[in-house]
C-alpha cells in the first residue's frame, strides 16, 4: 500500500469517526430534549369566548396534548370537571381551561325553591345579570279602578339569581297585551312567600324588571322606598 492509499484510508476512517460523532451528538440532543419535555398529557382550550357566570358545555372546549411538566397544576384534564359548573370570569378563546376559572353553579339553600320568570331582555337584563348575582325585583301594576294611579313596588329585595337562560321570542298573548319581543328566563332561589310574590307579579303586573344589587351592599331598603307612585314626587 503506497502513501496515497494510506492517506485515503485515513481520511475514510476520519470521515466515519466524524459521522459517528455527529450521530451520537444528535442522539444526545434528542435524549436531552425528551428528558426536559417529558410525557404529554391531555388538556383543554376554549373554542370561543365564554362570558362570566355562564354554564359551561363540554362542546365549547378543544382537546390538546401538552408536555406534563409544562402543564399548570390547575389545568383541567378531564371534562367531567366542568359538569354543573359556571365560568367565574370571562373566558377567552384559546385559553387553557383551569380549575380556578370555574365554580359550582349556585345551589338552593334549605327552605328555598327555584322559580323562573321571563324578563324583557332590554329593560330587565341588558346582559349584566348572571348566576350568583343579587337583584331587587320591581313590578309595576296598573290602577284597578278608573282614576287609580299605577304603582311600582319592590316585591322581592336581594333575590339570588341561580340561572340565566337563552333569549326567547315572546308572542302576543290572547288579549294582545304582550308584543312579540325578546326575553330571557331568569331563575331565582327564593323562599315560599317571595316565590308567591314573583309568581303573582308575572301573572298580573304590567312590567317586571330587575335591578342589580352592588356587591357587598347589605343595607335594607327603607319601607317608604319599596312603593312608588308619581304622586309621591309632588
Keywords:
234 residues, alpha+beta, Type Iii Antifreeze Protein Isoform Hplc 12, 2 domains, seven-stranded antiparallel β-sheet, two-stranded antiparallel ribbon, 11 strands, 30% strand
Describe the protein's topology:
Blueprint: H1 3-37, E1 40-46, E2 61-67, E3 85-87, E4 102-104, E5 113-120, H2 121-125, E6 134-141, E7 151-164, E8 168-170, E9 181-190, H3 192-204, E10 207-212, E11 227-228
Antiparallel strand pairs: 1-2, 3-4, 5-9, 6-7, 6-10, 7-9, 7-11, 8-9
What does this structure look like?
There is one protein chain. With 234 residues, the chain is α+β, with helices and mostly antiparallel strands. It folds into two domains: 40-104, Alpha-Beta Complex (Type Iii Antifreeze Protein Isoform Hplc 12); 113-229, no CATH class. Helices cover 23% and strands 30% of the residues. The N and C termini lie far apart (124 Å). The mean pLDDT is 79.
